[in-house]
Amino acid sequence: MLRCVASSDALQVRFWGTRGSTCASGPEFVEFGSHTPCVEVRCGERLFILDAGTGLSALGAELAQNAPDKIDILLSHLHLDHISGLPFFKPALLAKERVIRTYCGHLDGESAMEPLGRLFAPPLFPVRLGQLPARFEHHGFRAGEPITFDDGTRIETHPLNHPGGATGFRLSHRGRSICYISDVEHSDPWPDPDLAAFVRDTDLMIFDGMFFDAEYSYCRGWGHSTWQKGVELAQQSGVKALAIFHLYPGHNDATLKAAEAEMQRIMPTAFMARERQFLSFAPADETVADRAQAAKVPAV
Ligand SMILES: [Zn+2]
Ligand SMILES: [Zn+2]
């Protein structure tokens, strides 16, 4: 089901940071990585960045000179682990004609400009975002409203249960979709029917499964869920593949691999997200143009 395709019109996902709350580091944290949340999504050639945790610096180094002139960063919310990569995003340093747009949905329609301006300023940080060569634009919306971009692209959003609020995103392209559901704490009863409707039948759900059910009684109210609740939501919503994300920095590779094996006995297409992991979904809505092109290819 998950396969690499050469098509430049695929829906593609790469994880640049999969840890939640803070980084993990050391020889026992190599396989799943160390950076905090950042996910690159390509809808064909179109780039979206989900969250700006420390993984954003690694993505920026990879993009470097090849970054597009307009870059859209969808922020689930503004907790530090989701924004701390912003000043270290190399494309912001390389071109003054570049525009970096942030989208924030949990501040009653206000943008992230004011809170980001408070954080990235002396004495907390030496350089203001406005002093970087690229121009930042900050857009606010209300989680639950769709975001429509100037090229006509539309992304669906959903409010999430998290201290201070957070926003889930659903990105669709050529008959495929992915849902980004971080950070979220499950409700009782579960699955929440509105969230289940939001993620229904998606090809990939990226879900905050920071804790294990056995740990959850110690972490109740912290705003995070468990891989077991992610599987329940996925299986009851027709989700095709599940990436457990926002991994607890105290869970080392051995712990996560053991949990992943246990999870895959229940849902074989579920996995723990790994830093730099890449997934590609071929278009599912073959167009008239595709069929015409295919007709020109001789059978062999
Ligand atoms: Zn977080
Ligand atoms: Zn958070």
Q: What do you see in this structure?
A:
- The chain is an alpha/beta fold.
- It is 22% helix and 25% strand.
- The chain has a seven-stranded mixed sheet. Strands 7-8-9-10-11-12-13 form a seven-stranded mixed sheet.
- The longest helix has 14 residues, at 253-266.
- The model is unreliable at 1-6 (pLDDT under 50).
- The structure holds zinc ion (2 copies).
- Residues 35-251 form the Metallo-beta-lactamase domain.
- InterPro entries: Metallo-B-lactamas, RibonucZ/Hydroxyglut_hydro.
Q: What topology does this entry show?
A:
Layout: E1 11-17, E2 38-43, E3 46-50, H1 55-63, E4 70-75, H2 91-94, E5 99-104, H3 113-119, E6 135-140, E7 147-148, E8 154-160, E9 166-173, E10 176-181, H4 193-199, E11 204-208, H5 216-219, H6 227-237, E12 242-245, H7 253-266, E13 270-272, E14 278-281, H8 288-296
Parallel strand pairs: 3-4, 4-5, 5-6, 10-11, 11-12, 12-13
Antiparallel strand pairs: 1-2, 1-14, 2-3, 7-8, 8-9, 9-10
Pfam families: Lactamase_B_2
Protein name: MBL fold metallo-hydrolase
Domain Metallo-beta-lactamase: 35-251
